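## Example record

The block below lists the input lines for one assembly entry, exactly as stored, with component labels intact.
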Amino acid sequence: MTDSDNDSMSTTTTIMSEPTQKCPICECGVRYDCRYTRYVCNECEKNAVTENGKKIKFFNEKHGFGCVSYVNDQKTEVPIHKCYINGIECYADEGRFGGIVIQAAKNK
Ligand SMILES: [Zn+2]
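Predicted structure tokens for the full assembly:
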């Protein structure tokens, strides 16, 4: 809900020659995205599970917006955003331009 990532202290790092970043789970190279610096790659997305270890998937509710979650192919009444991939806590939400973005939670 809150966007505490938006620190007013600007520590922008300009990366000119490296338009990629690493998937926080498997560390493969993914397309650089200045807004989603910890988003997980498509392969890792498939491994998302709930806290209880059930398979979870995320979809847009309608026309590419909103975020709904499916656990064991059943839509949850209340959308779940938290999930785990390889034991790493992640958070799924609607992307800036629609679609679903799953990001690893901040490092402790
Ligand atoms: Zn990955």
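The pocket of zinc ion is lined by residues 23, 25-26, 28, 40-41, 43-44 (CB under 6 Å). The mean pLDDT is 88.
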